[in-house]
Here is the input.
Amino acid sequence: MRTSPATRVATFALALLGCGGDLEVTPVYNHANGRVVLELNQDLDGNKIYTRVRRGSYHQLDCAKLVAEIEPLADSGTNIDGPFVDPALTKGVLRPRVGRKPPTPAMLAQLMKGVDSIIDVCVMDGSDVKIQLERDLFQAWDAGRREGIGGKADDPASGEQEINSAQAYGERCIAELGEIPFFEKTGDGTYSTYDCLESTEIPMTITDANGNVTKPQEGEVAKCDKPQYIYSLCEAGPRVAARTNDQGTRWVLLCRKSIGGLTSNQFNDIAMIGTNPFTGKTCFFQNALYSKTDGGHVPHPADKVKSTDLWSGVHGGLGSGIECAHCHDADPFIHSPWIDGAKDAQGRPTVPKMGCRSGPRAWRQRHAVRARQPRRSALADGEADRVRRGQRVLALPSHGLAACGRRNICRAWTAPIHRGRASRPDKFQRSGAQVLDAARQHAELQLGRRMDELRVLSRAQVHLELWRELDEPSLHLARRPDDARRWRRQR
Here is the structure.
């Protein structure tokens, strides 16, 4: 077998450390030539090794069956080239259309077969099984990149690191954002699990024509008082929880698409977001939709053993997984009457509205974090470019990525606006109040006015000030003809 110098150097130390004891096999993925590489701590010594890569579920490997289906690898030594990997297996099953639309029967049938890309390895001594293991292909891919197999290794210290597995993504996220308070660390890379039933219920009520209010305990209905925004769905059972760690990072865990109603801990859609409002760094996690549904044992994404029991893929940037940034592009948390129906003990929405306060200084406090910081975080420019190119990145800054600016989460809810247009134009229109609220933000950021000065201006005055002081009145905000006429008279 021929190996590159980088491969030989990467595995030399492993061979030296493993000269005695039991045989150990570590599958990694060489992305340069598309092959699996099996790293051994000692020679096979007459044993035979069988391996394949498949799409499916874990805990399905039967070495006796595998031996009858494929031939053993012919190479020997401590570094063995395995089979080529089908390029389709290097891409996740979850695509944007699966994340935002109800799956078709064909999609569900595919998901039920399993969504994981798995490397199966069996080491046989005659008819005896010496080693039987399954490894996530994307974890093997990350391991290969760390070792420099197939080319130059990434530089984790600088942040320039391509991440392919949810487990490695979780490790990077906790390094940047701090630990996730839903889970207790029990060892090196091991954590406790979380039960969605410990979260706050998101109520679903139905008010009939006579004003009578009912609250179903399970199932879905066609119409309710506050439907979900993403699915246009009315269901009983969704739950949400929020925690803040010692670094100030807000973590929100959402369990929806309930299987069984309010008393069930099984959910087709389980998602988690972590964001630090001081740095803008944000991480997104998503379960294998409609496939891995155990909300009673939600694992830590960085758990070396249990992460793949629920989490699947890297979903933050555009071009990656279900592309969370399509909706969560200006703020990490999207607020609607449905999600804000979940309240904490003080009657506040469970999902944080960061920067929002009541009283005469509400507007100033609402934008305090944003006003104290530069327009973009330290990583925002480079990461925004990589998001546009479709690369996987760690953090999507909470500001600087969206053309439409920060959503006004502290006021009455309207449909989120994406890149200057309503995401649901058939149901929602951009109101004049929303335009003027955006004008206030634009005045703060672009004209550099002190917020105390803006606070005493009326909405109409703020709007006119923008038209008067900009060199060219070419705001992306929607305008009305009477606004333009008024501006010309003022000039």
User: Anything to note?
Assistant: The mean pLDDT is 75. The chain is about 25% helix and 20% strand. The CA atoms of residues 98 and 278 lie 32 Å apart.
